[in-house]
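To illustrate the input format used throughout this study, we show a single complete record. The first block contains the structure-token representation of the backbone; no residue identities are included at this stage. The design step must infer an amino acid for every position from geometry alone.
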């Protein structure tokens, strides 16, 4: 599979029209694949509820292809432990998140695209353990307010 501008443009068009303001494209043929590989296009305002991958433990990595992506890591109580902005112009291209680490991602530019890799297999029953201290996706205005709170807390990292 070739990852080219045509594929990113097609995926971006779907993401911008999506209710969630994001869209993924899977390269792995089935959920049972031991290595989950996908493109994920996100737009500003897309809320990804903080979550972790444990029991079973899974690593997750993001490599920036276009745009800018804020990655936030939290402690068990929801305090920000670390954050970075994946940005080609700054020379920060990717991050690997260890199993059991609460995290979220935030698009800082339209049509931000990352190549995402995660241990498989995928099972919706145990893939993500959502943070109890963060609003669920679809809880409006709580999720939008929380997203803005995260952006305010990491403001220095998100400014160009």
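Output of the design step:
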């Amino acid at each position: 599979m070739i990852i080219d501008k045509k594929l990113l443009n097609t995926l971006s068009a779907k993401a911008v029209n999506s209710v969630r303001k994001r869209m993924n494209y899977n390269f792995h043929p089935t959920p049972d694949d031991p290595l989950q590989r996908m493109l994920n296009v996100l737009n500003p305002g897309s809320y990804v509820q903080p979550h972790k991958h444990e029991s079973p433990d899974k690593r997750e990595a993001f490599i920036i292809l276009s745009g800018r992506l804020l990655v936030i890591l939290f402690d068990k109580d929801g305090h920000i432990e670390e954050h970075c902005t994946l940005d080609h112009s700054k020379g920060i291209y990717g991050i690997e998140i260890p199993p059991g680490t609460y995290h979220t991602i935030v698009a800082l530019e339209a049509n931000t695209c990352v190549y995402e890799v995660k241990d498989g297999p995928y099972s919706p029953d145990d893939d993500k353990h959502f943070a109890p201290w963060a609003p669920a996706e679809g809880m409006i205005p709580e999720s939008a307010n929380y997203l803005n709170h995260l952006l305010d807390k990491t403001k220095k990292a998100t400014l160009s």
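Structural context for interpreting the output: The chain has a mean pLDDT of 95. Helices lie at 5-16, 142-153, 155-158.
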